[in-house]
Amino acid sequence: MIFRRGSSSISLSVRWVIGTFTLVVTCGCGQPTTETAANRSAHQGVPTSSIDAAEQHVRANTPDQPASARMLLIRGGTFLMGTNDGMPYEAPAHEVKLESFWIDAHEVTVAEFAQFVAATGFKTEAERFGWSGVFDMKNGKWTRIDGANWRAPEGHGSQTIPNEPVTQVSWNDANEYARWSGKRLPTEAEWEYAARGGLEGKEYSWGDELRPAGKPAANWWQGTFPERNTKEDGFLMRASVKSFKPNGYGLYDMAGNVWEWCADWYADDYYSQSPRENPTGVVSGVERVMRGGSFLCAGNFCTNYRVAGRSHSTPDTGLNNVGFRCAKGV
Question: 49, 56, 318, 320 - which has most CB atoms within 10 Å?
């Protein structure tokens, strides 16, 4: 995935956010070349998420979580990272040994990020740029939306709830939050080890069956992407944290909901050169690692809710399906 911002001539290329799909939107003079339906509705004060009354009720009646995310201790150990049965950049499967670490039980929420902003006066990159990337559900494509930021992820008139994952935060933004909270972003190896929840060689964070007991176990796109989402899981877009059962380590949303930033620089071939103990990614790069997939991942297009799924984007990227959680050493 690539998402670069510029000052006057904007080139927006979104790659791997939702699979092998590549979209380029080129804008001049800081304005979109055409006004999309999502952009029109945003400026008219209508949320672009198309959330129906039933889902609004569920979201509004989900109890808020405590202000500070509970962290869980993940005991160090050895596991098989990656897969030989997925994309080339998910291979080779290789043994990794990690020290113990702490990780947030769930993704950082809007309420938690708001505390950070209130305490520091921090402005996200989306706020400073004045726009960000939003997936237009009506037209089935990514577009630039003025005014999209962590408070209004789909632009003017859109809304969040305190207990959903904060989005429209770049890697740089997430890193600043982590520093303020006395934490850090997890390494890619830590993230996958935690996501596996103690299971060895399984496809998903809950096992090998996509729909255990016949029901979705996470927030991902059911139906045919991008034409139709059946909302079998109960959500069109972001779900409140803890809406689904945790994995074996007690961690929530390690698959789907929103992508999560990791500390590492990204490289397609990193697994072939990764050290066996406590890998931290390549020394430098252009893009940072993202893990976990999002509500836009669908079986016909992208299956990055798989525990080995990988993605990447530039550190200034902000999108309405990208968030983060924090970690820290023991």
Answer: 320
Residue type, 2: I
The residue among 138, 159, 144 whose CA lies nearest residue 55 is 159
Phi, psi of 118 (to 5 degrees): -65, -35
d(CA 97, CA 99): 7
CA atoms in the 13 A half-sphere facing the CB of 9: 0
79 has which bridge partners?
96
SS3 of residue 138 by DSSP: coil
CA atoms of 18 and 137, how far apart (whole Å):
13
Q: Is the peptide bond before 63 cis (omega within 30 degrees of 0)?
A: no
Q: Which pLDDT tens digits describe the chain residue by residue (330 residues)? A: 445 554 322 334 443 343 333 333 322 222 222 222 232 233 333 233 334 444 444 444 444 444 345 999 999 999 999 999 999 999 999 999 999 999 999 999 999 999 999 999 999 999 999 999 999 999 999 999 999 999 999 999 998 999 999 999 999 999 999 999 999 999 999 999 999 999 999 999 999 999 999 999 999 999 999 999 999 999 999 999 999 999 999 999 999 999 999 999 999 999 999 999 999 999 999 999 999 999 999 999 889 999 999 999 999 999 999 999 999 999
Q: Is 229 helix (H, G, I), strand (E, B) or coil?
A: strand
Q: Which residues contact 44 (CB under 8 A, 6 or more apart)?
A: 157
In DSSP terms, 221 is beta-bridged to 298
Model confidence, pTM? 0.83
Q: Domains along the chain?
A: 57-329 (3.90.1580.10)
